[in-house]
Amino acid sequence: MFIDIDCSQMKKYNQNAYGDYFVSKRYPDEARLIAVLSDGLGSGIKANILSCMTATMLLQFIENQQIPIRKAAEIIMNSLPVCKIRRISYSTFSAIDVNDDGHAKIVEEGNPQFLWIRDNEIMEPQFETIQSKTFKNRKLKIYRIQLKLGDRLIFCSDGVTQAGLGGGRLKLGLRREGLIVLAKDKLAENPDISSSEFSQYLVNQARNIETDRKPKDDISACVLYFREPREALVFTGPPYHQQKDKEYAEMFANFKGKKAIAGGTTANLISRELNRPITMDTTISIGKLPACSYMEGVDLVTEGILTLTKTLEYLENGTQDIDNAAGKLVKFLLDSDCINFMVGAKLNQAHYDPALPIEIEIRKNIIKKISNVLQDKYFKKVTIQYM
């Protein structure tokens, strides 16, 4: 089971910094994911610092596993100061520690109660309440739930549930009940919507409810979707030992999922070993990336180093929907959940041609950087096999 997670956010109107902070980290070796959404008191820089401190501290506590999630949250809850004027916590939070089998531990303090949706119905899990030893108005909610394929979780800041508060249509704000209606209607319309699209939809709807569409608070929505993983394989670079070309070509052919080739030498290897002709696209313009080629049974065939370097640039900058080979490779990667790279270790002397741009890096380093950005920024599962 793959955990598709994303968080969309919008700043309070006329503010330069987010008062909410979201952090997530995946642990492939443990088949585990931790995510924290924190809401700082007020808005702007001060709220950003407080929410960032809360979220990062809590993630590190949970990550180290030296103390249980319940104890970690209690320590943070009792560490946070209280506003002298408003008598409320400087930062609230929601945290989840979940594995690929669906075993989840959730802790909430001050944030709106999360939504658990199964078959487009709201689940109402039991929870344990822990009273703060220091502050009477602070309580932890601890949940332990078992998730199934198709389940969704929605966490949000009160900028969502209080959207429209005091306005003409919703004087009491959107509230939890309104969020449930929005979520269920959207899932009925698009049952397979991604977490990225779903979270952005909820944030946009919350903004649209506000007077003049100007958010009175920071708006954050985090969505987790538990589904079958979408597997992908990228083969780039010829293997170090040429006698293993046939073995790796068959491994590529037998992969169950989407497949891409990055590199002319690699494409020729697959073509030769599997007896599949390559159809070249001749519409190549000077100064642009080489166009894609086509091969039976392969979803995408591109040039190698130039295209990978530009793909890395697009991923780092968040650039999408570009109509060139790198843009297509970006879409290929982002439409996948578990991405496997087969990276040949044989050196290609063309990479050392002094006529090539100096920013071009060795293939291994580019793949490593692409892997890091896919994991850290886009929450993908990535494995690299060197050959």
Q: How many beta-strand runs?
A: 18
Backbone structural class: alpha+beta
CATH architecture of the largest domain: 4-Layer Sandwich
Order of helices and strands: EEEHHEEEEEEEHHHEEHEHEEEHHEHE
The side-by-side strand order for the widest beta sheet comes to: 2-3-4-5-9-8
Give start-end ranges of low-pLDDT stretches.
Answer: 356-360
- Beta-strand portion reads 25-35%
Figure out the total of helices: 10
CATH-defined fold name of the largest domain = Phosphatase 2c, domain 1
Residue share in helix = 25-40%
- The domain tally reads 2
Largest sheet features: 6 strands, antiparallel
CATH superfamily placement of the largest domain: PPM-type phosphatase domain
CATH secondary-structure class of the largest domain? Alpha Beta
Radius of gyration: 24 Å
Shape: elongated
Average pLDDT level: 87
Terminus-to-terminus distance = 28 Å
Overview of the structural elements:
This protein is of the alpha+beta class and 387 residues long. It folds into 2 domains: 226 residues, 4-Layer Sandwich (Phosphatase 2c, domain 1); 156 residues, no CATH class. The chain is built from 10 helices and 18 strands. The protein has a 6-stranded antiparallel β-sheet, covered by helices on one side. Helix 6 links the parallel strand 12 and strand 13. Helix 1 packs antiparallel against helix 2, helix 8 packs across helix 9 and helix 8 runs parallel beside helix 10. The longest helix has 21 residues. It is elongated and about 70 Å long. About 1% of the residues have low confidence.
